[in-house]
């Protein structure tokens, strides 16, 4: 997930980076959805990823391969577009959260239909849905992460039951945080680790300093 979100942030960044308020491009819904889908496809192809699906093979997975991940990413693009469009119509708040939640559930159904029931991108639907919605409003990375966190912390009023996925079972068993908590905290691993390393790899001398909590 860190690799995936890092790719999306890379695409959203402008060339000019400031020290404490890195600006992001204001893109339309279709562009944001296309970039989100592209990030999923790039993450799938990235190799090597030991024990994970990559261009070399399925790793420890027995139910998915690169082709399935690409198919899943492709089918999710229109749902990311709808999430971004919803965000252009509503401010950050309960109504937008309700819309994003409903669209996310529709996206998951489409994903499972495309993959014959395999959960390829449930966590990515959650994280990227929040980010494409926030990206329609944000002018800086701080605003992007803050708005995504605000959305993530609002209750999903349309959620009737929680599916106990493998990830949730591990979280409960070992007391770990997951994609939900990462988003609610404003994606700290992306801010503190992913982006700084990305800037260094690109040769930027002006590294962004994460806002204080």
TrEMBL record:
What would you give as a GO molecular function for this chain, any one?
A: triphosphoribosyl-dephospho-CoA synthase activity
What does UniProt give as the signal peptide span? none
Keyword Nucleotide-binding attributed: yes
The chain's coiled-coil residues are: none
Q: Which domain of life is it from?
A: Bacteria
User: Which lineage do the record's taxonomy fields give for this organism?
Assistant: Bacteria, Pseudomonadati, Pseudomonadota, Gammaproteobacteria, Oceanospirillales
Under the heading Pfam families, the entry gives: CitG
Annotated EC: 2.4.2.52
Q: What is this protein called?
A: triphosphoribosyl-dephospho-CoA synthase
| Catalytic activity entry | 3'-dephospho-CoA + ATP = 2'-(5''-triphospho-alpha-D-ribosyl)-3'-dephospho-CoA + adenine
């Amino acid at each position: 997930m860190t690799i995936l979100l890092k790719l999306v942030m890379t695409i959203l960044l402008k060339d000019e980076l400031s020290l404490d308020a890195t600006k992001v491009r204001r893109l339309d819904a279709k562009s944001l959805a296309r970039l989100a889908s592209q990030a999923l496809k790039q993450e799938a192809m990235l190799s090597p990823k030991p024990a994970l699906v990559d261009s070399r093979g399925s790793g420890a997975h027995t139910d998915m391969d690169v082709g399935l991940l690409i198919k899943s990413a492709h089918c999710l693009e229109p749902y990311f577009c709808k999430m971004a469009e919803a965000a252009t119509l509503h401010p950050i708040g309960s109504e937008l959260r309700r819309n994003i939640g409903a669209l996310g559930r529709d996206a998951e159904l489409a994903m499972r239909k495309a993959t014959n029931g395999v959960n390829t991108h449930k966590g990515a639907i959650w994280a990227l849905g929040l980010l494409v919605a926030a990206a329609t409003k944000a002018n800086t990375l701080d605003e992007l992460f803050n708005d995504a966190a605000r959305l993530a912390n609002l209750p999903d009023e349309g959620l009737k039951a929680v599916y106990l996925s493998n990830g949730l079972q591990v979280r409960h068993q070992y007391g770990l945080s997951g994609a939900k908590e990462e988003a609610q905290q404003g994606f700290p691993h992306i801010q503190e680790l992913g982006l700084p390393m990305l800037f260094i790899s690109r040769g930027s001398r002006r590294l962004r300093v994460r806002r204080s909590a």
